[in-house]
Each structure stands twice: as C-alpha cells, then as structure tokens.
C-alpha cells in the first residue's frame, strides 16, 4: 500500500466541495467515493460501504429449483396430448402422491429431502393440510395465477407467522394473532408504511416523529420530504452503554405531539440490539402514558443477534414490525420483506377516532374495495395503497417470490441445530475481530453486539492507539470523518460510509462486515491504521 504524505488532505480543502459532499445521503456519497477509489486502475477497490452480504443460504434455493421441476411436470400433465412446451394449471387432487413418487425416483437430488421435510413439518407443527400447502407452493413457483388473496398466500402466511414468532418474538407470539404483508424488501415496507400513515391522516405535516439514532439514513430523510413535512425528534442511543436507549431519551415519547416512534433493532450502523431492560421500560411507558403511540420497528438484523426479542413482542398492540430476508439469507436481489401487524392494534383504533372530514375523504378513497370502509383494516389499506387502490386486485408480492420467502422461513424453522445461523454469526463476528486487530486495537464486543456492521470511531481508536491528547486533537476537527473517508478512498481504494449520515455524532465510518473476505478486512484495518499514523505525525509536528 503506497505511503502518501500527510498533506494529502489539501486536495479536499475547498470548503464548497466538502460542504456539498457532506450534504449528500451516505449512499449517494458512496458513489463519489467509489469513483475516487477506482481512479487507480492498478489497485483493487474494496467497497465495504453497502451491506450486501457475500454469503447466502443454498439449501432453500436448491429446494426452490427442485420444486420447480416437479411444478413444471405437474403443469404438463394437463395438456400432455399437445405439443411439447404446452402446460396448464396444476391439479391438486392426487398431487401429494405424485410428489412422493417424484422424491423417491430421485433420492440423490439436493433439495428434495428438504421439501419432503417441509411438507411433513407444516402438517405436524403448523396444522396445515399437506396437499393444500403443496398445491400453493407449486402454483406459486409457476406464477400462473394472480396471488390470491392479494396481501399474502394463505399457507405462506402461516409459515411466515411461525418464522417471525421464532426469530423475533422469543418463540411465542404475543396475545392475539398478527397479519403479514410480504413486500418487495424492507425498503418497500418502509415506503408503504409512511405513505399509508400519511394518506390515512395518521401523520400530517407538522407532526413529530421520534427516531432512535443512529439509524438507517432513509429514516432520517423520509420524514423531511415535502410529502410528509414532519418534525424529527431524536432519541440518542448512548454509545458508552453499548448504544442502549437511556430512560431520559425514552421520556421524549411522553410528548403527545410525537405520533410515531421508529427504531432499527439491532441498530444500523452500531449493530447492537436493545436489551430486555429497555424493552421493559418502553412497554411500561406505552402502556401507562402513551397508549396512542405508533411504533415502527425495523428488525432486519435480528437473526444475527443472540436471544433476540423484538419491540413487537414488548409492545404488540402498538408496533408495526418490518423484517427483511435480504441480509440473513443473502437475498437482496430477491427483494423479500414483510410487514407484520397485530389484528388488534392501535392504528386501527386511531382510524376509528379520525375526524369526520377525514373519514369522508377515506370513504371516497377506498369505496371501490368495500362497502364498509370504516372496517377496512390498516394492513389491507397498505396493500391497496401500494397499488394506488384501483389496482388492489393485482397487488401483492409475486408467487415465486412468496415461495422463496416461505422456503427461507422453513429453512430457519427446520434447522434444529441452528447450523446456518451459527455459521452466519461466526462469519461476521470473526471479520469484526480481524478488522480491529489489524488496526492494532483489541476487539472488545459487548454481548448485545451483532457485528453485521461496525462503526470505526476515529476518536476512540486514535485515543487507544496514541493517547488522550491525540484523541482530543481529532475531536477538535469536525470534518475529520469526511476527510478520512476521502483519503481512504483515494489512497487505498477502500470505500466506507460516513457515520454522520446515520446521525452518529463522533467522526466515524460505517464498515459492513458482510461483503468482503477476511483478508480484505485485514487490509481495511491496516489502511485505517496507516492514515491515523499519518494524522498522528501531523499532531506531533504541531500542525
């Protein structure tokens, strides 16, 4: 790695350039950094900015392909007298017997034992009819009919409920039953939720929305869009307490002007889960003081945590839960997410208490769907709004996507030894240790840390390496984080994202521990150490 002089920063000293770059979303700044990092064609560019994992679950994908062969053969039965390549809708009657024969005739086919186990599992553990379940999966693979009902396929919803109960609710559902709406990834879920809350008059311009920060940057950006015009109230997690939400910050939720509270748990980018004590405090606050509060919890990294319990379990009546299969199963390209909402929930209650003018407006909006608009549940309004209401009948995630989602969920449900989960956890946590050792810092993870991302706190790392005086010197340079990222990209080809873009106060960089090799994380750690050494020389020179 070529050594550069400390005055390398001078190429970024034009304040207008720094100001313009600092105003960008971290994911837009990433593109600028990639351009700098790619400027040297002789050097490998390492992009640890975006969290797209470089690992994925193969068994449920094998099962998808194996089921596909059976599904196509079922389709071809309908018109077997016609030319090759012509099929019809599968016939449920006798399908289970034909499937069992299909499995027996190809015992070595990877994925078929998984499918046979899945058919057995859903009958024994979820009480589903084997043949009805199998027919839904076959039709879903073929994509030959509109998803019906539009919100979610019935058998698929039961599988998703069981999976979310296991992974997010500590293995047991809260009182009541929750509905599930599969979406085109967690980002679509976010978009749909904000849009429907606004359309239904539950969020209006000038309302306050509380955000547990640091947080995934779109949660900071969406409320400020002209479409919403919301006032953001930040609940700052305490870095010194492993990014827990202090009680003093939770008390900001007592303000009745705060209509919605959003958090990502485990957090992004600190990658720490909220412990049970915080969940208990939030539960008491909501129950006693703010029964009208709407909570949105984004639990996409939950499956990388140990013994995770969601806010959805602690405050079931008030919480709308977003989960994505993208990170854990390596399925960002599949676009698979879910929205879960208790059937008895505060949002539906708030709809009933809207002013008469709003109710009349909403009656006009949804009257093509039902004669009982006041009784239309919020989760069904989400589905309709996602297709501009008029196209509600063609809403819903595609059949093949719902099938792959169900197979991912079944993989989690049937992996009794947690082999995939343990491997995924060990992979990202091992990379965390490698990164920090390469900086010359002893890794010191907290039990609540997840490790999918890490925030490289430049002040903290600099202080550990060179002492408190150097740490204070770094602290006195407010644009240090951005300058560090620019140097890192230009000199070494390494791309990270700014912590500031996620509302991290200290100069820091977010590094994804999911998308590079162990060797490459050693290179990132060494590059970080190299630049800090350079800054330290400047500090010693009195500059």
TrEMBL record:
Tagged with keyword Transferase: yes
EC annotation from Swiss-Prot or TrEMBL: 2.6.1.-
Residue span, Aminotransferase class I/classII large domain: 203-521
PROSITE patterns documented for this protein: AA_TRANSFER_CLASS_1
Keywords annotated in UniProt: Aminotransferase, Lyase, Pyridoxal phosphate, Transferase
Needed co-factor(s): pyridoxal 5'-phosphate
A GO molecular function held by the record: aspartate 4-decarboxylase activity
Domain of life: Bacteria
Enzyme's top EC category: transferase
UniProt keyword Transferase present: yes
Family: Belongs to the class-I pyridoxal-phosphate-dependent aminotransferase family.
Protein name as annotated: Aminotransferase
Organism: Arthrobacter gengyunqii
């Amino acid at each position: 790695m070529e050594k550069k002089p400390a005055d390398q920063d001078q190429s970024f000293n034009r304040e207008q350039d720094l100001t313009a770059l600092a105003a960008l979303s971290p994911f837009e700044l990433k593109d600028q950094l990639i351009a700098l990092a790619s400027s040297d064609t002789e050097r490998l560019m390492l992009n640890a900015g975006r969290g797209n994992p470089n690992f994925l679950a193969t068994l449920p994908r094998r099962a998808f392909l194996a089921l596909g062969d059976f599904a196509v053969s079922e389709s071809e039965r309908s018109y077997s007298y016609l030319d090759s390549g012509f099929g019809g809708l599968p016939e449920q009657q006798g399908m289970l017997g034909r499937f069992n024969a299909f499995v027996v005739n190809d015992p070595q086919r990877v994925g078929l034992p998984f499918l046979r186990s899945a058919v057995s599992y859903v009958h024994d553990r979820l009480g589903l009819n084997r043949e009805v379940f199998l027919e839904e999966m076959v039709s879903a693979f073929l994509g030959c009919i509109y998803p019906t009902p539009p919100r979610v396929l019935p058998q698929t919803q039961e599988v998703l409920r069981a999976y979310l109960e296991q992974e997010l609710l500590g293995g047991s559902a809260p009182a009541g039953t929750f509905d599930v709406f599969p979406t085109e990834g967690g980002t679509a879920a976010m978009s749909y939720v904000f849009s429907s809350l606004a359309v239904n008059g539950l969020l209006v311009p000038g309302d306050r929305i509380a955000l547990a920060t640091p947080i995934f940057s779109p949660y900071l950006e969406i409320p400020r869009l002209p479409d919403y015009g919301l006032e953001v109230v930040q609940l700052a997690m305490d870095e010194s307490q492993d990014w827990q939400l202090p009680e003093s910050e939770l008390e900001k939720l007592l303000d009745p002007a705060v209509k919605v509270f959003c958090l990502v748990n485990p957090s992004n980018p600190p990658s720490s889960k909220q412990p049970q004590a915080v969940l208990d405090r939030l539960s008491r606050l909501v129950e006693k003081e703010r029964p009208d509060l709407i909570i949105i919890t984004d639990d996409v990294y939950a499956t990388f945590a140990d013994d995770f319990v969601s806010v959805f379990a602690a405050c079931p009546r008030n919480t709308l839960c977003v989960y994505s299969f993208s990170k854990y199963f390596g399925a960002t390209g599949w676009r698979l997410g879910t929205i879960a909402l208790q059937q008895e929930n505060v949002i539906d209650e708030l709809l009933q208490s809207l002013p008469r003018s709003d109710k009349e407006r909403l009656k006009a909006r949804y009257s093509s769907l039902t004669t009982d608009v006041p009784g239309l549940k919020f989760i069904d309004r989400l589905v309709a709004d996602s297709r501009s209401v008029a196209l509600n009948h063609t809403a819903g995630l595609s059949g093949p996507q719902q099938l792959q989602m169900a197979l991912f969920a079944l993989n989690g449900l049937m992996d009794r030894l947690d082999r995939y989960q343990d491997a995924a956890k060990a992979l990202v946590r091992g990379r965390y240790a490698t990164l920090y050792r390469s900086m010359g810092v002893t890794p010191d993870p907290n039990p609540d840390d997840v490790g999918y991302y890490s925030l490289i706190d430049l002040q903290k790392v600099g202080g550990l390496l060179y002492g408190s005086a150097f740490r204070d010197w770094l602290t006195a340079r407010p644009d240090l984080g951005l300058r560090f990222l620019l140097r890192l990209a230009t000199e070494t080809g390494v791309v990270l994202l700014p912590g500031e873009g996620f509302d991290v106060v200290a100069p820091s960089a977010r590094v994804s521990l999911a998308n590079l090799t162990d060797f490459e994380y050693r290179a990132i750690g060494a590059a970080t150490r190299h630049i800090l050494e350079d800054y330290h020389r400047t500090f010693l020179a009195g500059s």
